[in-house]
Specification:
Blueprint: E1 11-14, H1 18-29, E2 37-40, H2 48-52, E3 56-58, H3 61-66, E4 70-73, H4 80-87, E5 96-99, H5 106-112, E6 118-123, E7 133-139, H6 145-155, E8 159-163, H7 167-177, H8 179-196, H9 201-222, H10 226-233, H11 239-249, H12 252-272
Parallel strand pairs: 1-2, 1-4, 2-3, 4-5, 5-6, 7-8
Antiparallel strand pairs: 6-7
Helix pairs in contact: 7-12, 8-9
């Protein structure tokens, strides 16, 4: 007699913002059919794009929890206590609750949920929207390695997925969550430099975005240290070393390191509130 297949995994999202949409889109690229995903939000504003991809939508958070095996809590940090108090009585030991809220610690999440709840804290970033995200997660006290493995398998189509201790989550927020905006600022400055020198704006921005994309892919795929790739672009007395000298004079390296530090500290601050 053939063994019955496991029932399909049901995925729920509480919150319908960009992070939820990016993660859900990534899952559709994997093995999760849209009919297995349900999304809730108080307003219909952001729900339409989920419906267009074939997912179910509702305004009821308890409905999402009762109809899901894995629930992503993707709301603003200050809304987490209210949302979890609303759904807490519907959470069982079979659920995996994944929080995407910046700064909300595993200890806080576990305190707001029933005893023995399986909780995982996840920090994605905006490029999940194009399945090129960088995601880091940390398991709570009751989450087993197999729960982490299940989450990783769900998220693999969203980009790079890594597991680490919770202390790294806030650092990841500064490095990659906020770091995306730092890269955009650099791309903007690259393009504006070209405009200043006489290139049309649209062309300059197109080339700047492709430059960032190409440099990032080469860095990721080559496995080389950034300093090695940088040295490979430089020739003695050439244009690149002159430009790099100007960036060093402007304190670019120190400013970027300080920006990651500031964003990390702010994430920690949010966790203490």
């Amino acid at each position: 007699m053939e063994q019955e297949a496991d029932p399909p995994l049901r995925i729920g999202f509480i919150g319908a913002g960009n992070m939820a949409f990016g993660i859900a889109k990534g899952m559709l690229s994997g093995n999760v059919p849209p009919v297995n995903i349900k999304v809730s939000a108080p307003s219909s504003t952001n729900l339409g794009r989920f419906q267009e991809l074939g997912m179910s939508v509702t305004h009821s958070n308890p409905e999402v929890v009762c109809g899901s095996d894995v629930v992503f809590v993707a709301v603003k940090p200050h809304l987490v206590p209210r949302v979890l108090s609303e759904v807490s009585r519907h959470v069982t030991e079979k659920h995996i609750i994944v929080s995407v809220a910046a700064g909300v610690t595993l200890a806080v999440l576990e305190e707001l949920l029933p005893e023995n709840s399986i909780v995982i804290r996840l920090m994605p970033n905006l490029p999940c929207l194009v399945q090129e995200g960088a995601l880091l997660f940390a398991r709570g006290a009751n989450a087993k390695p197999e729960d982490g493995a299940l989450l990783r398998s769900l998220l693999l189509c969203c980009g790079l997925v890594e597991e680490g201790p919770e202390a790294w989550i806030d650092i990841h927020t500064g490095l990659s969550g906020s770091g995306v905006a730092f890269v955009y600022l650099f791309a903007e400055a690259l393009a504006e430099g070209a405009v200043k020198m006489g290139m049309p704006s649209a062309l300059a921005h197109s080339i700047a975005s492709q430059t960032v994309l190409g440099a990032g892919r080469l860095l990721r795929d080559s496995g080389k240290h950034p300093a090695q790739l940088r040295s490979e672009v430089c020739t003695p007395g050439g244009t690149t070393i002159y430009g790099l000298h100007t960036l060093e004079q402007g304190g670019l390296r120190a400013s970027v390191m300080a920006a990651v530090e500031s964003a990390t500290e702010r994430a920690r601050e949010l966790g203490r509130k």
